[in-house]
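Table 4 source record.
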Amino acid sequence: MEITINAIFCLVLALAIYQTMMFLVDVSNATIDGINDGEGYIDNRHFILSWSLVIIAYFIKSTLLL
């Protein structure tokens, strides 16, 4: 059970790190290209959702593995 919980937490953390890298790439592209008339919009929903899932997964992990 403990190994499964740790594995799920690691997968969620890896997803959050990947989404962070994609967000930083979007930010740098928007900075280079410029934001004109709505072009270069930075979508940060996946970035925020992934780190929210990390916080939830860590809370569940710490609760179950007392």
